[in-house]
Write a structure and sequence with these properties.
Blueprint lengths: L9 H11 L6 E5 L12 E2 L9 E2 L3 E4 L1 H6 L5 E5 L14 E4 L11 E4 L3 E4 L2 E4 L9 E2 L10 E3 L10 H6 L4 E5 L3 E7 L3 E2 L10 E2 L2 H11 L3 E8 L3 H14 L2 E5 L10 H8 L1 E6 L2 E2 L3 E6 L4 E5 L3 H19 L11 E5 L10 E10 L5 E5 L9 H5 L2 E5 L11 E6 L7
Parallel strand pairs: 5-6, 13-16, 13-17, 14-15, 17-21, 19-23, 22-24
Antiparallel strand pairs: 1-12, 2-11, 3-10, 4-6, 4-7, 8-9, 18-20, 20-21, 22-26, 23-24, 23-25, 25-26
The chain binds adenosine monophosphate and magnesium ion (MG).
Magnesium ion binds next to loops.
Keywords: Magnesium, Metal-binding, Molybdenum, Molybdenum cofactor biosynthesis, Transferase
Pfam family, one: MoeA_N
Protein name: Molybdopterin molybdenumtransferase
Amino acid sequence: MEFTAGLIPLETALEQMLSRIVPVTESQTLPLLQAAGRVTANPVTSPIDVPGFDNSAMDGYAVRMADIAAGGALPVAGKAFAGQPFNDEWPAGACVRIMTGAPLPAGAQAVVMQEETEVTETGVRFNAPVKNGQNIRLRGEDIRSGASVLPAGKKLTAAELPLIASLGVADVTVLRKVRAAVFSTGDELRLPGQPLGDGQIYDTNRLAVHLMLDQLGCEVIDLGIIKDDPEALRAAFIEADSQADVVISSGGVSVGEADYTKQLLEELGEVGFWKLAIKPGKPFAFGRLQNSWFCGLPGNPVSAALTFYQLVQPLLAKLSGQQGNVLPPRLRARTLGRLKKSPGRLDFQRGIMRTAQDGQLEVLSTGHQGSHIFSSFSQANCFIVLERERGNVEAGEWVEIEPFNALFGG
Ligand code: AMP
Ligand code: MG
């Protein structure tokens, strides 16, 4: 893997990562509910026609066109309900009462909605012109038996699984979960619930990463907090690499004296890149270990969460076998206040977006954008994405925003 010097742009980093990642291939077959969040291993094809039979789109009357042409009232020969077809004799010059979803009686050519009819003593009168084929849902008009309804590489959600259920299919073959190992590095880190000693802080990043991995459907291997000790870190790298497809650490990627991550990555694998032209999150290490990919997140919690979101999330999508565009959409909004920015790095400020009176989007900064202000994520509902070369932004200027997805409560 080639080492890239200097600060590299986010798009280049993503391109370098995504072009190298090879998705998992092992698959398993699961009941639909258990397949939620998993990725299809093969295209899903339909074993049946949908609809499975010609049926009525309305509550009304099934008719033959010749009887309508005759012009008189038609007596009702019987009734067809959803799940209870009309199979009796249907004499000429009669109609059949029919409900939505009921199978169309043999020979029916149209369904007249009941609002366009009138029931009289001699039978049903039809008060509007009737077109051949109207209000009939034809067998197979939605999905033909044998047709592909979902491609391989599709993440299964409430948009897809009910569709599979509607085909009568109870199980689906999906790719295995991505295995992700996570650990935090830092002598100063303590677990929530423990007392803090001098200069100590609570480990925020591992919880953030663990939660996001869970939400993205990964199997998580949590290796805890590792001290800033080269031996302990080496052991953690090796342990993580032996168990996971991707290893995610936080801290130790800057240039301080206790920052061993890059050094170990060089020793045990290869460094792809480790300095990005983004803010927050400049030190982000990406590389390869013997068996797994490695992502070294920055220590500052905002930077760690942001780089996970912007870089690790698409990496995991690719690794999990999802196909198609894995990058989020961006929108344009008017900024409500001044945004501080110096040229040189792509900036992901946290913002609150809403629809303005004129129907356009407007966005307000959450305030202090320091990489230690984690509360900014909870207040925000989007990133304000400020281009690399842009300087300060004045109120009223247009900016790009990226709405949060479900990882951040969007
Ligand atoms: P580092 O990259 O290890 O120098 O860390 C940068 C900053 O992030 C330091 O202030 C660390 O104390 C802080 N930090 C590192 N890891 C964590 C963590 N897991 N949770 C909260 N803060 C952290
Ligand atoms: Mg550290």
